[in-house]
Fold this protein.
Amino acid sequence: MAKEKKSALKEKQGASKSEITNIASINDIKSKRKSQPNTKALVSSILNRDITALSRAITLIESKNVKHLEKANTIIKQCLPHANTSIRVGITGVPGVGKSTFIEALGKHLTTRGKRVAVLAIDPSSTLTKGSILGDKTRMEDLVKDKNAFIRPSASGDSLGGVARKTRETIILCEAAGFDVIIIETVGVGQSETTVHSMVDFFLLLKLAGAGDELQGIKRGIIEMADAITINKADGDNLKRAKLAKVEFNRALLLYPEKSSNWQPKVTICSALHNKGIEDIWSMILNYIEITTKNEFFIAKRNEQNKFWLIQTVEEQLKSDFFNRKKIKTALAEQLQLIENNKTTPFAAADYLLKL
Ligand code: GDP
């Protein structure tokens, strides 16, 4: 702080010398906090596997500030040549099935073998409540402390599409930061499973052994998406039931048509809590990668996913541009009122709005 400024401040506030020094250092800290390193420095730190830089860049992706988003786009572009290097695994299952226990066990299995693991989440509830399934830091306690692991809670956003886009971009940054495996967790709510499926190489459904009728209550679509079904909590009294469930799932899966990947979905059992079956699951995933790399399904699927995301992003952007137009906001309110008063039909109202 300049000398004159300090004395002016002293006069004004009657502050002591030490107080002034403190004010100066607080201002220093504040300005350091505010000043974001330039994008070039961030990219080079990300490529040097600097986690703080990675987190900062993800925060830019998640920001609503237009300037931040511009920066984020530049960073993503520069990271892109270094991306596409990881194995992307999606994990889904109802709350309580053991997703975080499983991810912790799989994550530790990998990090102890020298792999670097990033865990991201897509949490549809966070778009409403601003909460997140990974927000609670007590989950994955060991993995959180592991220097080879990076855990990032679900971004919150106004729509699942928005959150998904941010996660897709975060995957690119994590890959540029040298993560070998990226795990994306989701709960089976609404479209979230389809969303995660559209951004991963391998999709794993976690289940519990039920009361016999295993397929009851499972959405058909999810079985079709799953590359494997793992029955968790196969321990203690539950082991026998888990084994029976495995037989039943296997039988049920035979009824589904063969996948274009030539991969026959597998059913496995595990106990995430007791670290049993985790190694086999990882071997299975590697086997899948090997088979689909050889028959070129792996690369074809990633290409399809990229095309899908192009269309998805355009749709999202058009939608948000449309609804954010001032004219539309006013006209929409009027049309909604007219609908309430039975003075127009939804189709006529839509037609009117779209022509504005
Ligand atoms: P999530 O909601 O799907 O993430 O489930 P959690 O990982 O939080 O697990 C829910 C509860 O199930 C916790 O009390 C876990 O300790 C327990 N749990 C998870 N995996 C196993 C397992 O393999 N065996 C047993 N017996 N309990 C488990």
Notes: The longest helix spans residues 297-324. The pocket of guanosine-5'-diphosphate is lined by residues 93, 95-101, 232-233, 235, 271-273 (CB under 6 Å). The chain has a mean pLDDT of 85. Residues 41 and 53 are 9 Å apart (CA to CA).
